Amino acid sequence: MGLEKRGGEGRKNTLEEGVRLVLRRWNGLQQAVQNQWGGSDSHQKFHRLASDLTSSLSKSTEPVRLEDLENLLHESMLLTFNTDIEDGSIEQVAEQLVIIHEEYLHSQ
What is the pLDDT along the chain (108 residues), one digit of tens a residue? Predict the structure, then answer.
């Protein structure tokens, strides 16, 4: 998914595309959204999660800690979507986001 060297806004757009792709491929999150486990506004909550992650990652000038992302994703799933995921997918998603963020940092 390499992030080529581009201007700030282009880089952020590429980061956002990567974050959204990872979240759309996350079965646990997609199941929570489709079944509206977070309420009738689950789709909006999905978009807010993607935006919040993109914003946080784009502001970080240092590599993010895997554990911090895992905690953030777990808390978001629990509080926003009323879902406790224990299948290991939170860790996998966090790892993918760390890689995307590292590519983002190196594309500067």
Answer: 444 445 567 888 999 999 999 999 999 999 999 999 999 999 999 999 999 999 999 999 999 999 999 999 999 999 999 999 999 999 999 999 999 999 999 987
38, 80 in Cβ contact below 8 A?
A: yes
Using the structure block, give the residue that is written with the tokens 């986001």.
97
Check: CB of residue 23 under 8 Å from CB of residue 94.
no
Q: How far apart are CA 4 and CA 80, in angstroms?
A: 33
In whole angstroms, what is the distance from residue 79 CA to residue 95 CA?
A: 21
**Which of 97, 33, 52, 31 shows the shortest CA–CA distance to 70?**
97
Q: Residue length, the chain?
A: 108
Report the C-alpha gap between 73 and 90 in whole angstroms.
7
**Which two structure tokens, joined as six digits, stand for 98?**
């760390």
User: Contact at 8 Å (CB) between 85 and 74?
Assistant: yes
